[in-house]
Amino acid sequence: QVQLVESGGGLVQPGGSLRLSCAASGSIFRLYMAWYRQAPGKQRELVADITSSGVTNYADSVKGRATISRDNAKNTIYMEMNSLNAEDTAVYYCAAASLAGRSWGQGTQVTVSS
Predict the structure, then answer these.
(1) Helix (H, G, I), strand (E, B) or coil at 72
(2) Strand pairing of 90-98 and 108-112?
(3) Residue 65: CA atoms inside 13 Å, Cβ hemisphere, count?
(4) What is the C-alpha to C-alpha distance for residues 68 and 64, in angstroms, rounded to an integer?
(5) Cα angle for residues 11, 47, 17 (degrees, 5° grid)
(6) Contact 82, 13 (CB under 8 A)
(7) Average pLDDT over the chain, rounded to whole?
(8) What separation in angstroms does the CA of 77 have from each of 40, 42, 68?
(9) Quick check: helix, strand or coil at residue 86?
(10) pLDDT tens digits, residue range 12-68?
């Protein structure tokens, strides 16, 4: 299973945008990849995912504001989000899955506040 390292989180003003990155320790070519988030006091939820063939899926809460993408050559996935609001404040986790199991990153904090 690959090791995952997220980056790109931080403090963002309402209405702002950010780009999260998730670098894998090995090939992601055949892996299903996803971004999850967990806000304080809430369960972890799926934000967006992308299959090995590039098919994407988004949670209703971010649809139209988020774009997930993958660069297999760099073993990295990304998620760009815009029009951020306070409800987007959470720890964002990268996940990778295959028949062998699922891997999680350590998470990156995103705080939307003025």
Answers:
(1) helix
(2) antiparallel
(3) 16
(4) 11
(5) 35
(6) no
(7) 97
(8) 25, 25, 7
(9) helix
(10) 999 999 999 999 999 999 999 999 999 999 999 999 999 999 999 999 999 999 999
Enter the tokens of residue 32.
């299903």
CA distance 107 to 46: 13
Residue type, 85: N
CA distance 108 to 31: 21
First to last CA, the chain: 39
Residue of 60, 61, 70 lying closest to 90 (CA atoms): 61
Tokens of 85: 């609001």
For residue 78 the two structure tokens come to 């990304």
Q: Averaged over 62-89, what is the pLDDT?
A: 98
The arithmetic mean of pLDDT across residues 88-109, rounded, is 95
Q: In this structure, which amino acid lies at residue 27?
A: S
Task: Answer for the pair 74, 64: CB distance below 8 angstroms, yes or no.
Answer: no
User: Of all residues in the chain, what percent carry a pLDDT higher than 70?
Assistant: 100
**Which pair of structure tokens corresponds to residue 46?**
């799926």
